[in-house]
């Protein structure tokens, strides 16, 4: 213990020193330097590196080092959240990043397959003090003992699983299990599906995989950012601290409803409307809605446009041909519009020319090319002509298209149209299910960013030219900078960068991180996307996400048994086929770390009542505490409040999971609970409905009126507790719950 404490002291001394250096170089960057381009360039490089390091050092301070491996050849490595090197000339690693290949045996080695290890040690620290050591002997022939042996090898894991919940998910970096490690480091580059029952660590694994990918492909992912999609904001705040605790901050967490920049979707759909909006058939309905905006004058009722050189007649034939030509380009609506406009202008100019320049005796037209050009200019300058074009082929916005569609849904079955029909009069009327529709509409109408792109490219070329100048200068100075032959080993900035990259650094107008820029850009292509509770997503939501991931680098996490969304699609094949055919990897997790076996047995019985073949994940522990039920005849809210008062832990969390209809009554009697609001998971007592409870966990759970839930919702509700479960009911109980211990 003393030796480990000395190591930890040395480690933190180094961390403090690094922090000081990092802070200084960030401060330096704020003061102008006058020592030439080379110095400035190298200083900037250092700042980029050091400020990242500073952020990581600040984030991982708690239990920075958590493990040690002793190899049979006598070498030992300490394992931690990030890698730290010594200040010596070799920059010897003192702490190995958990994601480095050297650290892998820490997670995978067993007595049967020791992977070169003699011993694995778990270090538990509080602040900077070592409080516990747990050793596992992996070389069975080795009889040296430390006195910290943990014969079962799972004391640290069980302590983590039994610890009081905080309302925020913690990382599992100290106790990642072998089956989880294989998924975290899986080298499949495309779509990786992680499936498993409740509590198998799917979310934890996905988040650690994000951290691993950021480590493995830092360069790419720092630029393109990682997106983590979750089912609701409460879930996203529940998982929000995991990646920062692993030193990773370049990640955007969002629900699908937050992925259309500029729209804050707060209104709520009926379940039926959400289901209709999520269906794949909406693609065609919206395409039709956009085509519907490409109008023609009625046959025989042309538009008459007053013009200085005589009235212009825009009839059905002219408009039809122009529309056909524009549609034949296969461009999105707004991008095809110039083609439509050009055809109309051309036809009207011809019309005018035929009228003005016609030879009354049937000879060729009097007008020459110059006259025609002049006439064309006149037509093109006419505001009335443009107004007519705008009438027939308006410039659209996605918001306009979807709002008009919802006001009068075209091309839908009557009952679907009735479910959708709703006025959208302002930004507060958008719902999360509208967001994939807006995204679809934005694709259908296109966005003409030609001018913006040209300006951005010109600015970029300017920066490249500047950066090239910087590099040329630094190359010119290399002879006297590195006169000493031995010094040629030292890399200068220009050895490892090119003008393109330097240009990126000098992109001074935009100091936002990649994640911040991604959040503001609908067309952003993320480096990797992780989707939690993926079984919840509708086909339309998948279309949106796939657009954000042209490389299809994705990790999808889900459990079909926990799905209740009406628009949710059953099988992965069906979801993924249109995007990657069968080129996805399917992985499974089979051990439940959250729910003790006493509770899991009850939950499994509920699911088996409908799906007799269902195989639940095996619980890693049992607590000896039996779940209970209590029948109530009077005021159920009052009874729940009494139980909650007795059960709410001082440390840890109690959740009351009840049907929405009871939330008002329950909120009135449960202290600190507000009905209808986003649940505050950091409070000791939380009120939720089963949908809100998805993905979350609590020490204790009371499920109220379970007879009102569908099977998958009930399954979710019953599998949220790490310690104890109770059921309170007035109405009838599902048969599978009748065997619970009766409480009074
Ligand atoms: N290797 C591990 N070490 C310590 N804790 C773990 C480990 N694996 C999972 N856990 C814990 O088990 C709990 C369940 O994990 P997680 O929420 O990731 O499961 P899940 O499969 O996403 O569950 P659900 O589908 O029910 O939402 C979490 O508290 C997590 O920290």
From TrEMBL:
ATP binds at residues 196-203. InterPro entries: DNA_helicase_UvrD/REP (IPR000212), P-loop_NTPase (IPR027417), UvrD-like_ATP-bd (IPR014016). Gene3D superfamilies: P-loop containing nucleotide triphosphate hydrolases. The keyword Nucleotide-binding applies. It comes from the Bacteria. PROSITE patterns: UVRD_HELICASE_ATP_BIND. Residues 175-596 form the UvrD-like helicase ATP-binding domain. Keywords: ATP-binding, Helicase, Hydrolase, Nucleotide-binding. SUPFAM superfamilies: P-loop containing nucleoside triphosphate hydrolases (SSF52540). This is AAA family ATPase.
